[in-house]
From TrEMBL:
Listed GO MF terms: ATP binding; tRNA binding; tRNA-uridine 2-sulfurtransferase activity
Protein name (Swiss-Prot/TrEMBL): tRNA-specific 2-thiouridylase MnmA
GO biological process: tRNA wobble position uridine thiolation
NCBIfam families the UniProt entry points to: PRK00143.1, trmU
Length: 364
């Protein structure tokens, strides 16, 4: 099991199992209990106005999810509570998400939810109540306090956990880290958990429609600007606001014609002050260097020449060298990445071990 262990003959740990209402968190709670820990289930109510039903695999934290989590807790015979975290979630995840897009950056709300909600607000409250650890259904492994990739490469979630501090990792449990997703579903069915075949959640949980642009348009006032060819400087058109764009975007640019050579144009850069969106050819998306801020680092001081960096939850990997500074990481890629935007997180790996992370604030 990834996380604090129960030594032979010692008292079990008090574990708070975060139960989303899905199959992964239910099996994680079951395994923590089976390992001999004293487990209490908690469902986080993150929406001020939860929908009665989720939309298939989109969204989460609905009334349906809360009820599914309670049913699973009943089967596991563990206490169960619902914690209202809607205000904290709005302040720490939704509002920064909107502000980042309005500033021309591209945030990852799942990563910030882990950082600010599950392993800050929830863990802080759990420890104040006397719990030793928080268990979640994330696919990642912990060995000797170090975060590592999961055994299932298709489900690995170490990227969105890369922002956690050493103290937070010391009080975390990831019981699914050594398992394949297929094994987790089979175990849920064998345990009689109603969520065994429940679809996984996709996209951004607080935008169940999947229409991120529509969501942002309802939260950010229109601020028209220019679409500019990054090569020639020619103004190609106008737009309603920089929140509608992200670096690497190809579709939905509102351009009436392609480049002179017929090739498509992509968003290369966003200037929030001038509200100018620069577009150009795909090859101009190549990034070789990353400047960062807000580092969370576990690897020690110095330069690391044989590491891998990841800039998206799924994909976006490249070999790199990293120089560690007090205020950030200087990352030089050995092969270029495309579609890298300020606001994204870069997580640094040595093999399958997470050395640390930082937020990208500049690319070149």
């Amino acid at each position: 099991m990834g996380g604090p262990a129960t030594p032979s003959g010692s008292a079990p740990l008090r574990v708070l199992a975060a139960m989303s209402g899905g199959v992964d968190s239910a099996v994680a709670a079951a395994r923590a209990r089976e390992a001999g820990h004293d487990v209490v289930g908690v469902h986080l109510a993150l929406s001020a106005k939860p929908a009665t039903m989720r939309e298939g695999a989109r969204g989460c934290c609905s009334i349906e999810d809360s009820r599914d989590a309670r049913r699973c807790a009943d089967v596991l015979d563990i206490p169960f509570y619902v914690w209202d975290m809607a205000d904290r979630f709005r302040e720490d995840v939704i509002e920064p998400f909107v502000a980042e897009y309005a500033a021309g950056r591209t945030p990852n709300p799942c990563l910030r939810c882990n950082e600010k909600i599950k392993f800050s607000a929830v863990l802080d409250r759990a420890r104040a109540l006397g719990f030793d650890a928080v268990a979640t259904g994330h696919y990642a492994r912990l060995h000797d306090g170090e975060l590592r990739r999961a055994a299932d490469p298709d489900k690995d979630q170490s990227y969105v956990l890369g922002v956690l501090t050493a103290d937070q990792l010391a009080h975390a449990m990831f019981p699914l880290g050594d398992s394949l997703k297929s094994e987790v579903r089979a175990e849920a069915a064998a345990r009689g958990l109603v969520v065994a075949e429940k679809p996984d959640s996709h996209d951004i949980c607080f935008i169940p429609s999947g229409d991120t642009q529509g969501f942002l348009s309802s939260h950010v006032p229109d601020a028209p600007g220019e679409l500019v060819d990054a090569v020639s400087g020619t103004v190609l058109g106008s737009h309603g606001g920089v929140q509608n764009f992200t670096v690497g975007q190809r579709h939905g640019l509102g351009l009436s014609r392609p480049a002179p050579d017929g090739s498509p144009r992509y968003v290369l850069g966003i200037e929030p002050v001038s509200r100018q969106v620069r577009v150009g050819p795909a090859e101009s998306l190549d990034v070789w260097r990353l400047g960062t801020e807000a580092p969370v680092w576990h690897g020690g001081a110095g330069r690391f020449d044989d590491v891998t960096v990841q800039v998206r939850a799924h994909g976006g990997l490249a070999p790199a060298s990293v120089e560690v500074h007090d205020d950030g990481l200087a990352v030089t890629l050995r092969s270029p990445l495309r579609g890298v935007a300020p606001g994204q997180a870069v997580v640094v790996y040595e093999g399958d071990r997470v050395l640390g992370s930082a937020t990208i604030d500049a690319t070149s």
